[in-house]
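Same chain as my last thread, 291 residues:
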Amino acid sequence: MGRAAFTGRLLPGGESLRPIDPLILSQTRATFSFLILLPVMLGLRGKQLRLPWADIGRTFLLGVFGVAASNFSYYLAIQRTNVATAIVLQYTAPVWVLLYMVLRGSQKATARRVAAVTLALAGIALVIGIVGGVGIRLDRLGVAAGLFAALSFSYYSIGTHAIVTRRDHWIVLVYATLGAALFWLVVNPPAKIIAAHHSRQQWIFMVIFAVVSMLGPYSFYFAGLKYLEPTRAVIVSCLEPVFSIVVAALTLGEVLRPLQTLGIVLVLVAIVVVQRPGRDEPDAVLVEPIE
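reply #2:
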């Protein structure tokens, strides 16, 4: 849907619209999600929405450096490259989560893990056309945005897990979307949005997009992070690239070259392998959530 918005082409059966900028799409995605979620949570949770200032600060940081940053950089990567390249770059996140855990001393840099990271980087090189990329345009800004999206995704996966094990994940989502919405208001004030003169159809598209691509999926992902450590949760979410690339090929006509397909396979294999416990490594202990 994001790629369709950037190209002006909606899904099959829809009319063509003027392309929507990635910044506008990211801003409305977070803002509409917050505006829809807030009244519902006020009715269901009421005074429970109050959090200590320390947790409010943490959730706001998640909203800015996690939600807002990952959304915009990911959509920018889609706009500058294509869905396949952007999503594979973003889903190197488990590799970065692992490296973070190694630097913290929580996990060891075993030969198997190092090999998996190397495999993932080789896959990325194939996907973005560094190796065998005849006829493939390498957009440096798009690739950089995709990698930044991966780092932001890693950050909010780790940060969200630390909070939702102590707090209601719905309340965390309210504050995270609020933080993202306020950040975008500063970066892109309402006057600029009004000056863009978006059509009624575009506004309808952006509201639906916010619900389908953020409010629903994020609520499930935040709930999953209550029961799974970040690395496990990110691994489960790695099914997204498979579905996204297939849907993009079917609906947007994006074509994958054989080497790009091989690169996707290498990255996905590396992501799974790097998180699987070895024979001498016990499964991670899950943190029980506090309701």
